[in-house]
Amino acid sequence: MDDTTGSADEPMGEPVDDGFADPSGAFDDEERRGPQDRSEEELAEQADHIRRLRRQGLRAPFVSGGVVGFGAGDAAGTINHYHGTAPQAVPVDGRVPGADLDRLRELYVEPRSHGELRKLLTLHGVAVLRGAPGSGRCTTALLTAQEVMDADVVYLDPEADLKRLLNKDLRPGGLQPGRGHVVEGDGRPWASALRGQLLNRLRAETYRRSPLVIIVDDQVPVDGLDDHVVEHPNTEDLRFEVLSRHLTVLLDDRPEGCRKLLEHEALAEELRGRTSMAEIARLARQLAQGERDGHDTDRIVQGLNARLRARAERLLRPPAPSGDGGAPVSLWSRAFLLACVVLDGTPLSRVSRESHRLAELLHGVRSPSSVPEMPLFQESLKDWLDDSDVEFTDREGNPVGDRHPECRVRVSQRGLGEAVLEVLWHDHSGARRPLLEWLDGLVVRGEEDIRVAAAQTVGLLATFDWAYIQEEPLVRWATDKGEHAARRRFAAAWALERAANDDMLAPRVRRLLRNWSRRRDYQACAEAAYGTQIGVLFPAEALGNLEQIAQTQMKSVRAAIHEIYAAGSRIQTLERLADWSLSPHYRLRDDAAMCLQQLSRFRGELAITGFLKEPVPREHLLRLTRNVLLSRDLAIWRRGWDTLRLWVERTADEPGLGTALAEFVAELPPDTGDPSDRLRERFLFYLRLWEHQGVGVDAAAHIASLVTERWSI
Asked: Alpha-carbon distance 307 to 691, whole Å?
């Protein structure tokens, strides 16, 4: 995919802002109401509702962080990014806790790559470990690097380029003598640009002093790096050994139960469907929990993926031959089953309605000789239910009958719906296109919960066939220019969020979004995707690409910034906004001001005023606020004063905020001179105005007296 970017000229005047972001995409352009009809509270409530719907459909946890879970180390990119502490002037590297490494070693099974990697590190000091994401590469790299030096291991900041390791001035943020080092390159541009010359230069820095393992995925080309590359395998034998080791540790007091589980005939088939070591670790915990709950081995295995797929195959079985005595299963029954899977948890009337639409689409690819027509009244809803493994509940999940006024359809067993879709996709290829067409219809016509369910179903299908889903619905949705463009764009973003939930696909999703951030037709969709959990998990990457988007198109990215800040990356977001406030690009400066105003509406622990009492983030907030208030653009500095008014108004609810705000404001004028004098005069004027309007009760007068005293010294 081409990475070229366009360029946006600087606006001659102030651009017209759309007033409010619509992060949920709930309204198409033709049905979008004006700002006067929708308050910010309504928009925020709508965005929160969409966010709750999305999170209900995501597997928890979204992506495992840290290295303490075997196989989860491939997602360790945030292990040392402590966003609640002071930001560093150098890339953030950190030591991996020894207790974590000890726990990993207890569960570790050495792959063939371990010995080869150890040999290369001993010979050269630097090696490239190449393998599929989720295959345990990070675990192998960490433990081998520790073994070579018999010392601590440092996890290097993957956001920084490897060339900085050659700069002696940056040594505090780079290689540490006497320790092993690991850096993971999934989704990073530098990983695809590795050259033998760079590795040879690194050898001089790492040999016998600071061994370094560079992790890349198996899609990265390594031509010319033969002397430094170790291929990391992911064989069935290795996966079984890993499962065996986990069960042995988890059931150390139940050796007989462990033996029965490992000898069960269904376990080998189960492992063939799992390639991620993190998935195998979860499987081991599931098996061990069943054993500790006192269930027999057969019952424990019944809930595994392979058995669920077998149930799905029975549900999607071909029609019974004539003369067998059983009634054939109609195409309409199949459509009802699929509608139940996709719209799990929605009212029965909705599921039935949408199943008719799906059946009409499937009708075009069925074989008329194998599935008879369905005359009206020949089949009833009860007939369909007999061929679907579902149950009925009310809103609270309590069992009810199918005639209950709030009856909702739920798939009877967790994971069965995914198994049905997997079997459908791989075994019934003729249904792929009508299924995707039906999902597209749900996206453009359905209510919010249906749209989210449809989009996340597409994300699930991407885990079965990434190339097909990327080329077919995702690219089309991301670049749609029609009347439903907004809905399709956000659906693509939500689908990518679900796809990134898969250990194997997360690096591909990140790489795709990085490319889309540089292409005009895709930028709006990339921005929407960074406003999901993808931006939350990779904030530095998301903020950098959002900056690229904001520079090249006349569109605010504040909705995505809002999500990243709200999810916890507060200091990192604030620092980036402070940089934007001095940018030569008007869009970045304007976004910085709008984000300052929007983020100031948070209350409680997310309140931006809490930074007034913390030294390091306070400096970022001071720089951001000062640049906004001193801007020559009317719209920008007006947002700055509206923000200060919010802060003054809040002093009545937050003890001590008035004094902290007065100290903060006293430092806003950087020096003496005309701009600073005007800033002082304007602030005192607004304080008198706000006092007259009753803003902040007595806080305005109190703040005015404190800042006047400070400025007169």
From this structure: 70
Pinpoint the alpha helices (H) of 553-698: 558-566, 570-580, 586-599, 615-629, 634-650, 657-666, 674-693
At residue 512, does pLDDT exceed 90? yes
Q: Are strands 390-393 and 408-411 parallel, antiparallel or unpaired?
A: antiparallel
CB-based burial of residue 164 (10 Å sphere; 0-12 exposed, 13-18 middle, 19+ buried)?
A: middle
Q: Which of 466, 475, 564, 558 is nearest to 521 (CA)?
A: 475
Contacts 24+ apart (CB under 8 A), 238-241: 238/109, 238/111, 239/271, 239/274, 239/275, 239/277, 239/280, 240/267, 240/268, 240/271, 241/109
Rounded CA-CA distance 642/356 in Å is: 52
Is residue 184 within 8 A of residue 77, CB to CB? The reply is yes
pLDDT digits (tens, 9 = 90+) for 302-320: 667 777 778 888 888 876 5
Distance in angstroms (rounded) separating the CA atoms of residues 540 and 563 = 14
How far apart are alpha carbons 528 and 266 in whole angstroms?
Answer: 42
**Separation CA 665–CA 648 (nearest Å):** 11
pLDDT mean across residues, the chain: 80
Taking the alpha carbons at both ends of the chain, their separation in whole angstroms is 61
Phi, psi of 215 (to 5 degrees): -100, 130
Identify the residue with better confidence: 341 or 268.
Answer: 341
Q: Which of 23-37, 41-55, 112-126 has the lowest mean pLDDT?
A: 23-37
Give the amino acid at 628.
V
Let me know: does 217 contact 507? Beta carbons within 8 Å: yes
CA 535 to chain centre: 6
CB neighbours of residue 50 within 10 Å: 21
Weakest mean pLDDT among 365-379, 465-479, 629-643: 365-379
Q: Which helix (H) or strand (E) holds 335?
A: helix 331-342
The count of C-alpha atoms lying within 13 angstroms of the C-alpha of 114, restricted to the half-sphere facing its C-beta, is: 17
Of 11-20, 401-410, 618-627, minimum mean pLDDT range: 11-20
Residue 382: pLDDT band with limits 50, 70, 90: confident
- Can you tell me whether residue 518 is helix, strand or coil? coil
* CA–CA distance, 299 with 304 (Å, rounded to integer): 10
